[in-house]
């Protein structure tokens, strides 16, 4: 696996960093500042830490594990020149608070998604949307869900998708589980799936076993 720059220090970033370190991947985790207290959560992992720019500079493959509300600003802080020619796998969903509390609300529509906005804002960067339709534990280790469940990919560049497939394979995803939806415009579809994911999670209960989506056909 290539060198990975992981943007984001929340539960998704922590889960993926731990798994990649376990698998022997060279990882730099980035936060807004190299001195951010959020990086203390990674002290027990075999990874390096730094700023968002440090993580991107290190990386052959950049993983965006930030909240989609902030993703464009995070990449802007790194700069278009620093990201030119790099593949960014975008895991994010844009979530805003729900009135009255509870699960936040996804904002994606048929015409708007985080993945699409990132590609438009950084045309020299290869953005691939993937892994945003499941819990982060399943992202990092698909074996915890039985059966032939799937992971989707959306992006305009075939070579970038191949690099993301390599990352997915490192986590344990099999080729037949990787479903290519087409160009980055299809990121809207997977980001809108987050509404269904949240409804299912609420209906099953937070303590229920992890789940994922399957595409079954004769």
UniProtKB/TrEMBL annotation:
Pyrroline-5-carboxylate reductase catalytic N-terminal domain sequence ranges: 3-93
SUPFAM superfamilies for this protein: NAD(P)-binding Rossmann-fold domains
Sorted UniProt keywords: Oxidoreductase
Gene3D superfamilies from the UniProt entry: NAD(P)-binding Rossmann-like Domain (3.40.50.720)
Single annotated GO MF: oxidoreductase activity
One Pfam match: F420_oxidored
Name assigned to this protein: NADP oxidoreductase
Organism for this UniProt entry: Aeromicrobium terrae
